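**Paired protein data**
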Amino acid sequence: MSNDTPNTVAEMATQQGALKRDTLTLIGIMGGATTMRALIMLPSGRVITAKQGQKSSVGTVVGIDETRVVLLRGGKELTLEMPS
């Protein structure tokens, strides 16, 4: 059995350029109401997981809901929303 994804499946599951690579991008939210975590892609392509109250290189997570995460960076709020 092969672990390779068939080309037709990969083509249907991906969109070229759907995620911006030059900025912070919210790529996923998981967990229940009290345990939500956000997956954030950095401009470098690295992905981090963050939870409310956590401090990281992208700022402090001050809020997470089903569609967005709010960060406090340099004294300003930055809202990241799920790509459409």
